[in-house]
Each structure stands twice: as C-alpha cells, then as structure tokens.
Specification:
It is globular, with a radius of gyration of 17 Å. Strands 3-2-1-4-5-6-7 form a 7-stranded parallel beta sheet, with helices on both faces. By secondary structure, the chain is α/β, with parallel strands linked by helices. It binds NADP nicotinamide-adenine-dinucleotide phosphate (NAP). NADP nicotinamide-adenine-dinucleotide phosphate binds next to helix 1 and strand 2.
C-alpha cells in the first residue's frame, strides 16, 4: 500500500471525522505531513493514532497568519508539500429568516474564504504536479431546510475546483472536489442533542439509497484516488461520495 509513498500532505480538520478518515487513508498509503485544527485534545489523540510521520498544528483556518504558519512549519519539517486537503468546515444552522450578518460572515469565512486562502497560502510551499482536494457537500446540490447558507458556500467550493485547476494549469497542480453525503462524524454532536444522535443517524440511514450513511473511510478512499496518479486525467472534477443520496430517489 504505497500509492502516496513519502508524499507530504496537509489536511485541515484532520483531527476529526472526515478529515481524520482522510489522514488515516493517506498514512496507510505512505504519506507524511500535518493535520490542522483548533482543539488540542483531539489534535493530540489523532496524531497519536497516525504515528510519527504526522504532526499536529493548532491553527484556525479562518486566520490567514495561522494558515501561513501551517504551510511554513510543514515544509520546514517535511520539505515541499504535494497534497493539500481543504476539509475544515461546518455551518451555522438556520434560515434566511433567522440568520443575520454575524452568522453569514462566520459561515462564509469557514466554508468558503478559508478554502480560498488554504490554497492561496499553501501554493508557495507546494511542489508542481501536486494534488489539491476540496471537501464540498451534497447540500450544494439540494436545498435542505436550515442549510441554505452552508449549501451556497459549498456550491462555490465546487466552482473553486474548476477555477483553481484552470488557474494552476502551468504548475500541473490538479484541484478536485469530493462531495460527501451524510457521513457519520462528530459533526452530529454539534447539531443534535446527545440523546437523539443515534435515532437521527438511523433515520438518515433509512432515507439513503444504500441503506447506510457514509463513514469517514469511504471519503478517505476517494481522497487517496484523487491524491494519487490514478486520477492524473482528472482536474476540476467533482466526485460524489454520497451513497446515492443526491440524485437517486428511494
Ligand atoms: N458529516 C457530514 O455528513 C458531511 C456531509 C457533507 C460534507 N461535510 C463536510 O466535511 C467536512 C468535515 O466535516 P465532518 O463531518 O468531519 O465534521 P467534524 O467531525 O465536526 O470536523 C470538522 C473539522 O473541521 C475543523 N475546523 C472547524 N473549524 C475550524 C477552524 N476555524 N480552523 C481549523 N479547523 C477547523 C475541526 O477541528 P477543530 O474543532 O479542532 O477546530 C474538525 O477537525 C466539512 O467541510 C463538512 O462541511 C460533512
């Protein structure tokens, strides 16, 4: 298992859920590098599981100076970067009637502005020929109540994969986006009272064409494909890893 042998990766939000699933999949294919988040406890536990070839960097992806530090520190430790995964995200939940300017700014800062600047700040430290993976959401394609702002930000992230690929043709850096459907991660804890989490997950699973929600490992496998030469003819593309929930009715 060495599709990413010695490739240097930076994975934002690599201390939880989908980001950790991607970090584990990268590690299993021989990659080294950094995971990025703000929660020191989960950073410590995640990096302990990933082993000596990964470091944890405590940084806020909405802060440009933090992002600069992330890439500088990673390049100093491992050399130039081959793979960037802009995964950190999440959203304020509410409707156009309830979310005001502060929620708007927060949601766009985290889900859109941070993606732009993760790439913008990473590029000077990146090898030509590298691969950048953005994490979208099927909320970009369907209107779910209370996820309008988040869905709009993710729709723009899907455009970023095309635009960035076009911008970076001369450097042969490919940018693609993975669109997860409902995935079993600690994000549920942010939106659902603890005692309701299992029931909500069961409900989502029953609504899925596949009869189950996604696991971080499902997204990890797709990320390895987009990071490796197996996808060398793909750029500006969207890979739906959603158990069919976006386009299939049940
Ligand atoms: N789970 C789903 O059903 C689902 C579906 C579609 C798309 N997605 C997308 O998948 C990505 C990962 O979500 P998840 O479900 O794995 O959620 P999660 O378990 O809550 O993980 C979110 C990650 O983002 C990091 N993060 C959040 N804000 C940050 C900030 N300002 N600076 C640095 N790191 C930050 C968190 O780390 P800290 O808390 O340590 O900062 C955490 O590692 C997100 O972009 C999400 O929108 C998820």
């Amino acid at each position: 298992m060495s599709k990413l042998k010695n490739k240097v990766a930076v994975i934002t939000g690599g201390n939880s859920g989908i980001g950790f699933g991607i970090a584990e999949a990268f590690k299993n294919e021989g990659a080294v590098g950094a995971i990025v988040g703000r929660n020191q406890e989960t950073l410590n536990s995640a990096v302990a599981q990933l082993g000596d070839n990964f470091i944890a960097i405590n940084a806020d992806v909405t802060n440009l100076a933090d992002l600069e530090r992330v890439f500088k520190e990673t390049a100093e430790k491992f050399g130039k970067i081959d793979l960037i995964v802009a995964n950190a995200g999440g959203g304020a939940v509410g409707t156009v009637a309830t979310l005001g300017e502060a929620d708007f700014d927060k949601t766009i800062d985290l889900n859109l502005k941070s993606v732009y600047f993760t790439v913008n700040k990473g590029l000077p430290y990146m090898n030509d020929g590298g691969s950048i993976i953005l994490i979208g959401s099927n909320a970009a394609h369907r209107a779910y109540p209370n996820f309008t702002l988040y869905g709009a930000a993710k729709a723009a992230v899907i455009h970023f994969a095309k635009g960035f690929s076009s911008d970076l043709l001369d450097r042969k850096i490919r940018v693609n986006v993975i669109t997860p459907g409902t995935t079993d991660t600690p994000a549920f804890e942010k939106f659902v009272p603890a005692e309701q989490i299992e029931a909500i997950k069961k409900h989502f699973a029953s609504e899925m064409p596949t009869g189950r929600i996604g696991q971080p490992a499902d997204i990890g496998k797709a990320a390895v494909f987009l990071a490796s030469d197996d996808s060398s003819f793909m750029l500006g593309a969207e890979l739906l890893v959603d158990g069919g929930m976006t386009y299939l009715s049940k």
